[in-house]
Design goal:
The structure is a homodimer of 522-residue chains. In chain A, strand 1, helix 3 (69-77) and strand 2 (84-89) form a beta-alpha-beta unit. Chain A has 522 residues and is of the alpha/beta class. Mean pLDDT of chain A is 86; it is low at 8-47 and 274-299. In chain A, helix 1 packs antiparallel against helix 2 (24-33) and helix 3 packs parallel to helix 17 (411-430). The first copy, chain A, is 35% helix and 20% strand.
Chain lengths: 522, 522
């Protein structure tokens, strides 16, 4: 704090040098150097996080890696009287992913779908032993019961990433998954995924940029058409919902606010090999030919819904001007996609949404793996062969030995696992097993069982699909149309985490209806 | 459109290759290749902007450079039955600058202070001869009555900037000003200005990053204090309002959501040489020593307000923990400021707000100049010696020959000039002088006269200053405190351009009051 003392001194000298000319600063500076000045170093209680192994007089520490559905639901449910919670993630918020597609075109605002973790579990910012660290986990040491982390500095060159170690009593890995590119060249460089708020921001900025660039004098009609060709690869719920939102945006807002170029903008949805989504990621790399030959048989959008609903979605989307095509993408260049048969598809905006797979970090972990390369867990979501490590959400899957299938990478699976594990850990703590290496004698209760509550997807123009059956074969409610859309909106509105965001989502929907979508490119 | 035809063909071939296996795509694809397919090239009416000199059967064209207060008020007021309007600007929205400081800490959302130009003047996106171009002006040719432009591609490497020319009947230069750095080394690289939405976004991201980084285990107390030292350079309304907002954020939200580090965060406001703001930019470069010696006499915040209000502001800010100091900045490094006497001031966030000066492009224009290097105008805001060119807002100033002082760079000056010029151009068009080179015989009416309506500034904690006098010496209302704050909020709420944003500003204020500020770092 030497610099600070000197700074104060300097300010005082300057003031005392002209005592005959008192000005407002005199007050402020004397105040500054006495009461408001920095307290002596000793008086500032050191709140340096102590992340060595917990002592008997401390609460046991649960370290949570990640801040998605699974991690956040877990943290919300954890009993902070029984545990200290430490969360490590490169983002300080949870994204309400089902509504992310709506933010790309301004139907919803970005902040309406982002929930700060400190609001989901206030302990991480207030309790003495609980923390949130904006960092990536770089290594797990099960024997030492510790994780290695490195701070996220976000491209600020003046900041060196800071490395630190956290010891855990319980470790929950909830690192999620990352977008699958199936090793296709150029996807990472040229396509935009749709998994984080910054992806949605990038899509919105690029879409608005292209709309404006295409209106510039002297640009050829072909280039104009390319700039305004929005291609979505992947016919799952995200790709379909985004296509629907995009066509709504075009029909209402582009026609009104970009009338000069409205006839040039088009949306194409390319459905590619849904089969690869359920296959082992590695299998695709080993047998790409085999798989690509069998693809055309399996092509269809929204494969998790039944035939009737799929037909309805197809009809609605084509009615809205979305072109549905099938193809196998071979290569992605900066302005065009090249299909397997050599066809070139120029584009101005390319959104890639062909499912997810485990991240390189998850694959690199020396832990048991499930089919598909996820972290393998038993029926209680424990990682066997190591102690006190659990895995939930998209990064985890049942081990083959459990005889259960790997669950799909869905928000509702992750959320349910987070809730289950919070209850399990709370009961473990009550039984005195919170501390590291103390769990083995404790009964864990019922294993985790997943019951599918149903699927929903909007297709634009106030229409949606709702399928409340446990599987395609089961009996139950499945419907499509405006009523479904109303159910879709109501259901998600009640699922939004906080009252603040619930309020903003409703307000956003209202203003989109009344004033149209916002087109400022900020 | 060759690629498109081929694409359609391909899709059809694929479908016809398996006629025994009809699926939903068959419908969609036949639809795609017939009705919803691209219309033949001839049928798509070419809407390519024609920006050659206007023909007698066209409306005369007003080209507006810029999208700030002056440009937007002008475009709003222009009679689009008499003129085609073409706006050239690197951003497609206007920023409601008086509320920008509030967005840095989340009191308001970014979009609540950004107004799309297409909503201010809908003609630019719908009328056949009116356009908005996302571009920078790179040259003005008064003899040819044309401007050269280059599209903004925003760092997207696959897009080459596109150059084009626009011919004007009337040209309005409203390019604004840029932040003054007085040639101090390192300011552009390390400090953040506060003039655009992306500046506010950068400040918010950096502030939240620093709050989180400072909580990481093992970081030294000195580094923690540096990361959380927010330095504001410049004691004008922007610097003061930002400091006030920042201290509000610290007192409420940091104490609640970043409780671990709340004792380490501090705000320092450094006031530097207000004298340089009214001096010729060039003079400062010629006589830097002379000026820096005289600086300490003139140091005080909010120099445009009277003593009583300034004293009040000083008291309020220091009460909120803002340190007010004076100094001459010599050099800015990535983590510290160096003052003239060698004192080093470490910082984590540096916001620079020491007034504005003409941009290099404005200085490079071969047009008459006012004192201070702005574009020189006569009493009717015309640029003499060239025909049909007008200049308004911060980029313009009265010529010395008019005997009038250069007006301050304020939103209310720019707005008034925009309004005045819109009326002048409308009446010129009515009198048949809209066309290039046809204005000279027409009486222009009353010259532009600026009457200052007063100044306002918030200082945080529901307090503000309001001075409704024309000058410090004049009689009239001047008050400080909660009532002023209420006047400040009400006044700005009514000034916000659209009902949509007025609604959102009110909602943002409401949710900030109820739920606190948003701290998601997106």
């Amino acid at each position: 704090m030497a610099w600070f003392g000197r700074f104060v001194q300097l300010a005082n000298v300057k003031n005392s040098a002209r005592p005959t000319n008192p000005n407002h600063f005199l007050t402020s500076l004397s105040h500054f150097s006495s009461t408001a000045g920095p307290a002596p170093a000793a008086a500032v209680r050191s709140r340096q996080p102590n992340l060595a192994p917990t002592r008997p007089d401390e609460k046991p520490r649960v370290v949570v890696l990640g801040s998605g559905w699974a991690a956040c639901r877990l943290m919300k449910g954890l009993d902070t009287k029984a545990y200290d919670v430490v969360c490590v993630s490169p983002r300080n918020h949870m994204v309400f992913t089902p509504l992310l597609a709506s933010t790309c075109v301004g139907t919803l605002e970005f902040r309406s779908v982002a929930e700060p973790i400190a609001r989901i579990q206030p302990a991480i910012s207030t309790a003495p032993g609980s923390y949130f660290f904006l960092a990536n986990c770089t290594g797990v040491d099960p024997d030492d019961h510790s994780v290695q982390c490195e701070t996220v500095t976000d491209g600020i060159s003046s900041l060196e990433p800071w490395k630190f170690k956290i010891t855990y009593d319980k470790l929950v890995v909830a690192l999620g998954a990352e977008a699958s590119t199936f090793g296709i060249h150029g996807v990472n460089e040229n396509a935009i995924f749709l998994r984080e708020v910054h992806h949605a921001q990038e899509i919105r900025r690029k879409l608005l940029l292209n709309l404006m660039l295409s209106d510039v004098p002297g640009i050829s009609e072909e280039e104009k058409r390319r700039l305004l060709h929005c291609v979505v690869v992947g016919g799952g719920p995200t790709g379909v919902e985004f296509s629907g939102e995009l066509s709504d945006f075009i029909m209402k807002d582009v026609h009104q606010r970009y009338a000069h170029v409205k006839d040039f903008i088009h949306v194409t949805l390319i459905e590619v090999f849904p089969i690869a989504r359920v296959l082992d990621y590695n299998a695709f790399h080993l047998f790409p030919k085999l798989i690509s030959q069998s693809l055309l048989q399996a092509n269809e959008i929204l494969s998790s819904f039944d035939d009737r609903l799929r037909r309805y979605a197809t009809k609605q989307l084509t009615k809205s001007g979305v072109r549905l095509v099938q193809g196998v993408v071979k290569d992605v260049k900066s302005q065009k996609i090249i299909l397997n048969d050599g066809t070139e598809v120029p584009y101005g905006l390319l959104v890639w949404s062909t499912g997810v797979g485990p991240s390189p970090f998850v694959r690199s972990l020396q832990l048991p793996k499930s089919p598909g390369g996820r972290i393998g867990v038993d029926e209680w979501l424990r990682v066997p062969s190591v102690r006190d490590i659990f895995a939930i959400g998209d990064c985890s899957g049942f081990l083959e030995s459990t005889g259960k299938p790997v669950l799909p990478a869905l928000a509702q699976v992750a959320e349910r696992q987070g809730k289950y594990l919070a209850e399990l850990l709370n009961s473990v703590a009550k039984a005195g097993g919170g501390r590291a290496n103390s769990i083995k004698e404790i009964a864990l209760g019922d294993p985790f069982v997943y019951r599918h509550l149903g699927s929903m997807a909007t297709v634009g123009r106030y229409k949606a699909l709702v399928d409340l059956r446990q599987s395609k074969e089961a009996k139950g409610l499945s419907l499509a149309g405006f009523t479904s859309w109303f159910i879709w909106r109501s259901a998600y509105l009640t699922r939004v985490v906080s009252w603040r965001n619930r309020f903003y989502v409703a307000i956003n929907w209202f203003t989109t209806f009344v004033f149209g979508r916002d087109i400022s490119r900020i």
